[in-house]
Amino acid sequence: MSHPQIEAIMARWAHTGEGLEGRCFWCPDEHIVRDAGISNMIGVLAGLAENGELAQALHRLED
Predict the structure, then answer these.
(1) pLDDT confidence of 63, banded at 50, 70, 90?
(2) Is residue 31 classed as helix, strand or coil in its secondary structure?
(3) Are 57 and 50 contacting, i.e. CB atoms less than 8 angstroms apart?
(4) φ, ψ (nearest 5 deg) of residue 31
(5) What percent of the chain has pLDDT over 70?
(6) Each residue of 20-29: pLDDT tens digit?
(7) Domain residue spans in the chain?
(8) Which residues contact 43 (CB under 8 A, 6 or more apart)?
(9) Sign of CA dihedral 45, 48, 50, 54
(10) What is the distance between the alpha carbons of residues 51 and 4, in angstroms, rounded to a whole number?
């Protein structure tokens, strides 16, 4: 996917409530957080955990 396509999806999700209201986008091997910074990344991870999506967004690697 191109950056403009992802930006359009995240903008749409800001209105529909998906992707933590457009704050993040994830698919296999790709995670995008709209706003930079550790506190924003922690907020997105916490939101995914609260919504029960964290296990889908992050995959445990085998040792």
Answers:
(1) confident
(2) strand
(3) no
(4) -135, 125
(5) 100
(6) 999 999 888 7
(7) 3-57
(8) 23
(9) negative
(10) 26
| CA pseudo-torsion sign 9, 10, 13, 17 | positive
| pTM, full prediction | 0.75
**18 Rama class: left (phi>0) / alpha (psi -120 to 50) / beta:** beta
**Which tokens sit at 15?**
């209105």
3-state helix, strand and coil shares in percent for the chain, rounded to the nearest 5: 55, 15, 30
pLDDT tens digits along 29-47: 788 999 999 999 999 999 9
Here the tokens at position 37 are: 């910074």
How far apart are the C-alpha atoms of 46 and 53, rounded to whole Å? 10
Q: Angle at CA 14, nearest 5°, toward 12 and 40?
A: 130
Residue 21: predicted pLDDT: 94
